[in-house]
Amino acid sequence: MNSRWKLAALAVIVLCPALLVPIASLADQPAAATPDVGVWQKHEHSFRYMGFTSTYSCDGLADKLKLLLIAAGARRDAKSQAGACASGFGRPDKFANATLTFYTLAPPAADTPADAKQVNAVWRPVALSARSPRELALGDCEVVEQFRNSVLPMFTTRNVVNHTTCVPNQLSGSNIDLRFESLAAAPSAAHAAPAQPGGT
User: Fold this and answer.
1) 176: Cβ contacts below 8 Å, ≥ 6 apart
2) Gap between the Cα atoms of 40 and 36, Å rounded
3) Is 14 within 8 Å of 21 (Cβ atoms)?
4) What DSSP string describes the chain?
5) Which residues contact 93 (CB under 8 A, 6 or more apart)?
């Protein structure tokens, strides 16, 4: 009888670790991360440049703003159109302005319509500085500053770090340094159009 009990006890000792290994390995596996999703939101904005150091033509300002929109994570079909400038095409104007029409991603809200198309989204790091993007120069400091104040709040961002300093009427001492994470379309959804205009 004693030998039977010893064999049974031995079997339990041998089998228990084997049974526990799969359970432990399953517990150690991290849960699959749920991808971020967003819905497209349409924005329209009239941008009026007020600067001291650089002067832009209306079409030049529009090109610079489109560069910033795309860099910040707006959808690729963003439009930046020259406003009405007295100086005409390609000529610097003290009152340069542009009209912006663009889409950004935002997390679905409680009032988001049920039929609004959701797209996969990622948090994309953005760093704006002189020559990043390549077409951005130190003389664009005031445009970046005004973009940050009036346009960037329309984006969904986090971890914003701003060390941009613009010294009026001179480049010396000025610095473009704006970093943040922007909710942007995942590569597979970057060119996807919303199911309904504006996605809302």
Assistant:
1) 128, 129, 130, 136, 138, 140, 141, 144, 164
2) 13
3) no
4) -HHHHHHHHHHHHHHHHHHHHHHHHHHHSPPPPPPEEEEEEEEEEEEE---SS--B-HHHHHHHHHHHHHHHT--TT-EEEE---TT-TTS-BTT-EEEEEEEEEEPPPTTS-TTSPEEEEEEEEEEEETTBSTT--GGGHHHHHHHHHHTGGGS-EEEEEE--B--TT-STT-B-EEEEEEEEE-GGGTTPPPSSGGG-
5) 55, 56, 57, 58, 85, 86, 87
Residue 128 one-letter amino acid: L
Closest CA to 147 of 75, 43, 69, 62: 69
Residue whose pair of structure tokens reads 């941008």 in the numeric block:
47
Q: What is the pLDDT along the chain (200 residues), one digit of tens a residue?
A: 455 545 444 444 444 444 444 433 334 444 444 458 999 999 999 999 999 899 999 999 999 999 999 999 999 999 999 998 877 777 888 889 999 999 999 999 877 777 788 999 999 999 999 999 999 999 999 999 999 999 999 999 999 999 999 999 888 899 999 999 999 999 875 555 554 444 43
Q: Which residue has the tokens 């002189």?
A: 130
Calculate the CA 62 to chain-centre distance: 20
